[in-house]
Task: inverse folding
């Protein structure tokens, strides 16, 4: 198990562009053409709320073509199971993480604590009206 985690972390570390000054968002929807297609409607709002962030979209390889030429996606990554671990992705304590914000809309529910995003999350709608 440890070897698989290390392989996935190595893949991610090699896939992100550390030379860019922009912060990074991981948006992960592993599968289902419908889920991936519909979730792309959120990307414009995410980019508007986080203009200095690069959006990395992760999915299984057979669905990458759905995302080709999307103007809001900086880079498309192959989905890895380690992406489901927000501590690895966003960091905690001494670990900086690989991404500043990690969204996994098909995984998060009211029962899963994944809404912290290092305090960088913004809501696009005024819910008090």
Result:
């Amino acid at each position: 198990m440890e070897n698989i985690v290390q392989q996935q972390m190595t893949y991610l570390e090699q896939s992100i562009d550390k030379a860019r000054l922009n912060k990074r968002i991981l948006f992960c929807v592993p599968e289902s053409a419908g889920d991936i297609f519909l979730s792309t409607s959120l990307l414009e709002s995410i980019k508007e709320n986080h203009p200095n962030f690069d959006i990395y979209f992760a999915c299984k390889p057979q669905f990458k073509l759905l995302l080709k030429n999307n103007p809001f996606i900086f880079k498309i990554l192959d989905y890895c199971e380690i992406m489901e671990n927000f501590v690895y992705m966003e960091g905690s304590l001494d670990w900086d993480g690989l991404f500043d914000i990690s969204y996994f809309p098909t995984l998060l529910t009211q029962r899963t604590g994944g809404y912290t995003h290092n305090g960088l999350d913004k809501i696009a709608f005024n819910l008090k009206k």
The longest strand covers residues 53-59. The chain is about 25% helix and 15% strand. The beta strands are 23-28, 53-59, 75-78, 101-103.
